[in-house]
Write a structure and sequence with these properties.
The complex is a heterodimer of chains A (274) and B (232). Chain A is of the alpha+beta class and 274 residues long. Chain A is 36% helix and 26% strand. Chain A contains eleven helices and eight strands. In chain A, helix 2 (25-52) packs across helix 3 (58-67), helix 2 crosses helix 7 (207-214) and helix 3 (58-67) crosses helix 10 (232-240). The longest helix of chain A is centred in the N-terminal third of the chain and has 28 residues, at 25-52. Mean pLDDT of chain A is 83; it is low at 1-20 and 195-206. Chain B is 20% helix and 38% strand. Chain B has three helices and eight strands. In chain B, a hairpin with a 4-residue loop joins strand 4 (96-110) and strand 5 (115-128). Chain B is rod-shaped, with a radius of gyration of 29 Å. Chains A and B meet through strand 2, strand 3, helix 5, strand 6 and helix 7 of A and strand 3, strand 4 and strand 5 of B.
């Protein structure tokens, strides 16, 4: 049970809102990752919209963000110990992406703004994300039990010992297209979540989701630089989408995990933006 | 130089200054730069087909009038935005290939001078067996995980040179009726070698003049010199 204690410690440190009393720690982690990913895409869209058109209105900005948004619906969570499924066939327990269908490919983007006036070099940066549809892989799924394939799973995930898993149904919508798929999230001994979302693995598995578990998604550039902070449309966007709940922490996305929607924590907006 | 020629110079420079007041820092905006890495391919671990990527960075300079005419230079904003994409075609020799990509988009602002910024894009390909396959690509600085079968990246720097503020006024705006002419200190005291005394309707001051402005001043000075010669 040691890993559960460690897991709880780490999760307790995550700045997330637990939307329902009966939400498990694993579901909280999964929902947080997806909510932050969706928010990271919105922030990138908002920044680019104002960058390209500083005179954009709030209505236009909202429309732009909505048009480019990446939204998820998560349901049917099933979480358990790996030890309880070791003798089951891997392909029957975990979904796989190799059906040749389209997947969402997500890039990790850093936006950096530097003020070089008087040689000061004041820098602000933020982690955002950029999605796009792409062709997914095709091919046979490896045959074997979970026990037989577990070493390979751990090696590829970069986690020394996978302890828990969470399977769930995810429906993603982007650019007017939707896909529904079965996805998995794996947990190591220290509570690190590893995203392996079925047929969305290229997009949602590996890099980006894992990064978003550990890195803050916070609109530093939009809040700290005069160019964006003083833009009326951006100010309205940040104000309208602000969130607040007991688990939120300053400097990190504040999320409604039921709606999978994040915003700036209200306390971060006090004393300046409003 | 006679008193008459000084006032004539004042009149001419005033007219020139009026033209300068119509000028804008936006006039310095250069065309946008698009620097592309054409499609690169690699067929490692492929029976047929290959993995590929292409990348481009768009760089731009945007000059705006500074908030005060006391600034010698225009405000500048350098931007560099990356765009990278990749994928796989054909049949791989083992399992399937996954690519992850990252980019660092940057902006740099200087309210009184030039600016410079650098964008990076990076992509890495790995062979994966299961859906638990995971790895990260980093930018700023560019970093790849061990075990990749192929990587690619692009770095591009956008530099916006300092451009003179067409409305620069070292004197701080002069003021009202007493703006130029005989009350203008730079006409009496002179300016540094790289600057010229410019007298406007309401103000005057030493101003660095580059390009055509500088030559127009030189032409004015030649005309005044010629007139002086006639008057003498």
């Amino acid at each position: 049970m040691r890993y559960i204690a460690v897991l709880c410690t780490i999760l307790a440190a995550l700045p997330v809102a637990i939307a329902a009393d009966n939400m498990s720690h694993e579901e909280t982690v999964v929902r947080t990752a997806y909510a932050k990913l969706s928010y990271a895409v919105d922030l990138e869209t908002a920044l680019k919209a104002v960058q390209h058109n500083p005179r954009i209105t709030y209505a236009q900005l909202t429309q732009e963000v909505a048009k480019e948004s990446l939204t998820f619906r998560l349901s049917d969570f099933s979480c358990g110990d790996f030890s309880s499924i070791l003798d089951q066939r891997y392909a029957r327990v975990f979904s796989d992406i190799r059906d040749g269908g389209d997947v969402i490919d997500i890039g990790s983007v850093t936006e950096t703004y530097t003020d070089q006036t008087n040689g000061a070099n004041t820098e602000a940066s933020m982690n955002v994300a950029k999605p796009r549809w792409s062709h997914g892989p095709n091919g046979p799924v490896p045959d074997g039990t979970v026990a037989e394939l577990l070493p390979a799973m751990e090696r590829e995930a970069g986690i020394s010992a996978l302890m828990r898993y969470c399977s769930y149904t995810a429906a993603v919508t982007f650019e007017g297209r939707s896909r529904t798929y079965r996805a998995n999230f794996f947990f190591g001994p220290e509570g690190q979540g590893e995203a392996t979302p079925g047929d969305m693995v290229v997009a949602l598995g590996g890099g980006t989701l894992q990064e978003l578990l550990t890195k803050p998604v916070y609109p530093q550039v939009l809040l700290k630089t005069a160019r964006y902070r003083n833009n009326s449309a951006m100010r309205a966007f940040l104000n309208v989408n602000q969130q607040s709940n007991a688990t939120c922490k300053r400097g990190e996305a504040c999320c409604d995990l039921a709606a999978l929607h994040c915003g700036v924590y209200s306390d971060d907006l006090k004393g300046g933006l409003q | 130089m006679t008193r008459t020629s000084i006032w004539f110079l004042f009149a001419l420079l005033s007219a020139g200054s009026l033209v300068a007041q119509d000028a804008s820092c936006a006039d310095y905006n250069p065309p946008i730069n698009v620097v592309a890495v054409p499609t690169q391919t690699n067929s490692q671990d492929h029976f047929t087909g290959y993995h590929y990527y292409n990348s481009q960075v768009t760089g731009a300079c945007s000059y705006t009038d500074p908030s005060t005419n006391l600034d010698v230079y225009c405000a500048s904003l350098a931007t560099a935005d990356g765009l990278i994409s990749g994928g796989d075609t054909g049949i791989t020799t083992s399992s399937y290939h996954v690519n992850h990509w990252a980019q660092n988009n940057t902006q740099a602002q200087n309210n009184d001078g030039g600016s410079s910024t650098t964008a990076q894009t990076a992509i890495a390909f790995e062979t994966c067996l299961l859906t638990s396959c995971s790895f990260n690509v980093g930018v700023g600085p560019i970093s790849f995980p061990s075990g990749t079968i192929w990587t690619g990246s692009q770095t591009y720097s956008q530099t916006c040179a300092p451009e003179p503020n067409p409305h620069y006024n070292k004197g701080g705006g002069g003021g009202g009726d007493g703006g130029g002419g005989g009350n203008c200190p730079c006409l009496l005291e002179g300016c540094p070698d790289t600057e010229t005394c410019v007298v406007g309707t309401y103000s005057c001051g030493c101003q660095y003049l580059g390009g055509e402005d500088k030559y127009s001043i030189e032409r004015v000075e030649r005309n005044i010199s010629a007139m002086d010669h006639k008057l003498n």
